[in-house]
Every structure is written in C-alpha cells, then in structure tokens.
Amino acid sequence: MEPEDRQRYLRALPAVDELFRHPQSQAHLKIYSKALVVASIRRVLERKRQAILRSASEQGAGAVEMAQEHLLAAVEEELAAATRPSLRPVINATGVVLHTNLGRAPLCAEALRNIGDIASRYSNLELDLITGERGSRYEHVEEILRQISGAESVLVVNNNAGAVLLALNSLAEGKEVIVSRGQLVEIGGSFRIPDVMRKSGARLVEVGTTNRTHLKDYEQAINQETALLLKVHTSNFRILGFTAEVSLKELVALGQAKGLPIMEDLGSGCFVDLAEYGIEKEPTVQEAIEAGVDVVTFSGDKLLGGPQAGIILGKKKYLDILKKNPLNRALRIDKLTLAGMESTIRVYLNKAEAIKSLPVLRMLTCRLKELERRAKRLQRRLAKELSSVCQVKLKEETSQVGGGALPLQILPTRVIALRPLEISAADLEKKLRHTDPPVIARVKEEEVLLDLRTVAETEERLLLEGVRQALK
Ligand SMILES: *Cc1c(COP(=O)(O)O)cnc(C)c1O
C-alpha cells in the first residue's frame, strides 16, 4: 500500500460515534451495557487502524476490508468474545494425560455430580448431624482415606506444595531436615524443595551425592538440631546408571532408632499399582504407609485423578501438630474441592471401577487397539472431507503421562497427522487454538498431530468440527 493510500484508508475509518449510532449497534444495547458496546467498537477500529499501518509496511498486502457491515460484524464478534468466560473447556489432543497447563485431571462423573449438589445448596460442611454440634470439614474424607490407605490420620489442604510447606513448618521450623542430594527436585511452576524448605523456616541439610546416597550419609548428618528426615519422590526425572538411594523402609528404621519422624513427598500419589496394567511402577500411597512413614504428602489432581488438593496421611501424633498450625487454616481446602475429592476417593473402594470411571486412569490404560480404531475412524472422515487442503494420515506415536509423573513411561498410540497444503503446520496449530472450543495439538516435523488418548469419545464431533473450521 502506498503512503497516500494509507492516509486515505485511515481517513475513511468511521468515528466511534458513527458506528455507535448505527441501528445495529443500538440493538446491542438491549443486551450489553453502553460501556461494553463502545469499548468493543473502539477495539475493532483500533485493530483496523493497525491493519492499515501493517499493510503499508508489507509489500503487496491486499486491500483492507473497510465496508461498514464488515466493521459492524466485527463489533458483534467482539461483544460475543467479551461476554464469553475467559476460563473455558478446550479439547486436549496433545496426548499428555496430566497436562498442568490444561488443568491436569478431568474429574469423574460422580465428582461432578457431587460438586454441583454441594455448590448449589447448603451442606453439612462443618456440622455434625448426629450431635448438632460443630463438626470438621476433614471428617468427610477422613474415614474413607484411612480405609483405603491404612493410615492413622488424614488432612487435606489446597495443594501438595502447600502440604509440603505445612508439614515442614509444623515439624521442623528452626531445625534441620535431612534430604538426599539426588532428591532436591524442581517441579513446574518453580516449586523447588530447597526454596520451600527455606520458606517453611526449616534448614536444609543435603547428604550424599547426585547419583548415590547411602544410609550412613543420613546417620552421620543426624545431630541435636535434626527434626526430620525427608524423602522426595523424584517424580519428574530419573537418574540412570551408577545410582543408589535409601529405601523408605531403611529410613523408617533409622528414624525409629533415633526417635526422628520420616516424611515422604510422593508427588503424584496413586492408590492403584499401575504395574498391573502394563505401566511403569509408581510407588503407591499404601506402600508408603505400610513401610511405616510418619507423614506422606501427594497431589489430588495428578495420578489420583481428582481435583487440585494436597493430601497428607500418616501418624496421628504428627498430623495433630499439622492440624493445629495456623498455616493449615491459610491452606484450607474449599468445600467444592472437598466434594469432588470425596467422590473421587470413593471410586477407589472398587479398583476395577476406578480404572473404568476415573478419566485419568482410563486414558492411561486405554488399549492401543481402541486408540487405533478411533483414530482410523476420524482419519477416514477427515481425509474424505479435507483432502483438497490437507494430507491426513495415521501414524505411530507416543503419548505422555505428564504432570511430572512417570517421565520414562512410553505409551504407544496412533495419531492423526495433518499436513496442510496451503498453510504451515504452525499456522494450523494456531488456527486450531482459535476454534470454538479451542483444540490444543502438537506440531512435529511440519505436521499437526492429534492424539485421541486425551480426547473423550463425546468430544470427537467437536474435534472434527474444529479441524474443519481451522482449515476452512
Ligand atoms: C507435583 C509435585 C509437587 C507439587 O504438587 P502440587 O499439587 O502441584 O502443588 C510437590 N512435590 C512433588 C515431588 C511433585 O511431583
């Protein structure tokens, strides 16, 4: 665009007031506030202005759409977008089951029902229905968690980071905590064990080396100042080769001999032995309790498949200290989370049921044959409709567990590989993110990959529609 054309285009843009007085804008006032309508008009005009300036700098850029009905339609879209919630469902076609950026675990149907009930009505959150006196919110999950895990005592807080902070502060403030050097992990969102330790007021004492730590390393570090021995499950990485770690059992024996409590941060925390389903062994919560750990903490929304929460199990003697800590109130779990958590945990009373009805476990244990059948079906439909604009193939790939769990686990899958003919794969990935609902996919070697492991069967229609929209 020549500079004089640019000036002409800029001058031709209508004023805000002119668009506002148009009957189509006036009609919006029946639904939306004046401020919102005006703001939407301003945004549309500003975008248009930017487009004109941009097309001036790009050689041969096409004419800018200036018709008034085009501007009014853009205002209408702007209004619709402004009133749509910012937090909304997306289709996870990445194949990463516990995707922290996409909200980790989708909940099971029972949890959703219970959350809806509790959210919409009053409840016995802190009322003992038998005595009529004040009750405890933790009671609703206490008995069942004890039953499943074998632990003496239970506490649930906002998340596992909070659980670790609360436990360290309650049991070791102003004192020393011994940790193996190989377990000083950082998980996503800059949660680092040494940093949490400092914030808790406890002093970190590192023992051993990155790859090898022995029982005598812990023994030699114990002194008058020691308050706790901490084991951290290296959930999101593995050290391979010449390695040695002290087992939880050995640590417990040492703790008992020296009169010191043992705590384990399990990270993911799982009630089902996934090895039975052909998945890499992840230590279970029951195993930690059986080994005699005094305090164990884990997330509610990782492998457990529930809402965001930090679950703390262990000996009553120590959990009573945690419960009295004012920090516990600051990290309190809210009633909706509690409702979702209780229902999720109840599903575990029947292990076969848990694998079937908890989305996280169902996706992790989904058979390759099933994934292939679904992928093939969708691939055929897409190929038939879109072959003029996109190559659509079926490919062998791997899904990931994610959420900082089971980093070495390879989950074989079949993906639909889209190779667009007119735009780049990166552009298609971006367009998919802008469909409604947004489709989140990954790009590999100039192809957009869609992994159905993390797409519910009920979402397939929306996925198909999203790909259509993006390639239109
Ligand atoms: C994920 C994780 C945490 C933090 O849990 P959140 O529930 O995300 O707060 C802490 N420790 C370990 C080892 C983890 O894997």
Shape: globular
CA-atom Rg in angstroms:
28 Å
Largest sheet: 7 strands, mixed
CATH superfamily of the largest domain: Type I PLP-dependent aspartate aminotransferase-like (Major domain)
- Helicity, as a percent range: 40-55%
The total of helices stands at 20
How would you sum up this structure in a few lines?
With 472 residues, this protein is an alpha/beta fold. Helices cover 44% and strands 17% of the residues.
Overview of this structure, please?
With 472 residues, the chain is of the alpha/beta class. The protein has three domains: 3-83, no CATH class; 91-100 and 364-470, Aspartate Aminotransferase, domain 1; 109-357, Type I PLP-dependent aspartate aminotransferase-like (Major domain) (Aspartate Aminotransferase, domain 2), CATH 3.40.640.10. The protein is 44% helix and 17% strand. The chain contains 20 helices and 16 strands. The chain has helices at 3-12, 16-21, 23-28, 34-57, 68-83, 109-120, 139-149, 160-172, 193-200, 215-221, 248-258, 285-290, 316-324, 326-330, 335-347, 351-357, 359-364, 368-386, 425-433, 460-471; strands spanning 91-92, 96-98, 153-157, 176-180, 186-187, 191-192, 203-207, 226-232, 262-267, 295-299, 310-314, 390-402, 411-420, 439-440, 442-444, 447-451. α7 runs parallel beside α15 (335-347). The radius of gyration is 28 Å and the shape is globular. It binds pyridoxal-5'-phosphate (PLP).
